[in-house]
Amino acid sequence: SNSTFTMIKPDATNNGHTGAILDQIIKGGFKIKAMKWIQLSIEQAGKFYEVHKERPFYGELVEFMSSGPIVAAILEKENAVADFRTLIGATDPAKAEEGTIRKKFATSLGQNAVHGSDSDENAKIEGDFFFSGLERF
Ligand code: GTP
Ligand code: MG
User: Fold this and answer.
1) Which residue, by CA, sits nearest to atom 1 of ligand 1?
2) Which of the residues 115, 116, 123, 127 is marked catalytic?
3) ipTM here
4) How far is the CA of 76 from the centre of ligand 2 (A)?
5) How many Å apart are CA 72 and CA 12, to the nearest integer?
6) Ion ligand 2: residue ranges with CB closer than 5 A
7) For the Nucleoside diphosphate kinase-like domain, which residue ranges apply (predicted)?
8) How many beta carbons lie within 10 A of that of residue 137, not counting itself?
9) 17 catalytic per annotation
10) By the number of CB atoms within 10 A of the CB, which of 49, 93, 99, 105 ranks highest?
């Protein structure tokens, strides 16, 4: 489909990379359909990442994602999910391609600057988690 969901994570907002990351997303051809600046509670972050709750890093992930402000957004582009994951690069910034958002702005594997949905189905679920019909177009 043609939309995906992203978050700029607390490491990147706290390190002053929000503007540069949004600039790279927009120059990469993505249109912003909805956006908000928000800090998640532990409970909200835990619910968002429920799919990972059996993974050993779940507690650390939830704590990190609720530790500071994030930018949540719905993005539109042809082939959005796959193209956005190309733009952000590998989960581990040490393995990410040169020029990708994670290569340029991530702190570590756990604190990797941005989230990108991994399927059309999850893009819809994740966008609906953050935005009501009134907040998007
Ligand atoms: P997202 O776009 O954030 O979903 O990343 P991803 O799809 O590239 O990775 P995945 O969904 O497998 O993992 C979700 C997030 O958990 C990652 O982005 C990392 O922030 C974190 N994570 C994944 N693996 C590890 C790990 O081994 N250790 C730690 N501390 N965090 C991890
Ligand atoms: Mg993922």
Assistant:
1) 115
2) 115
3) 0.95
4) 18
5) 13
6) 118
7) 1-135
8) 8
9) no
10) 105
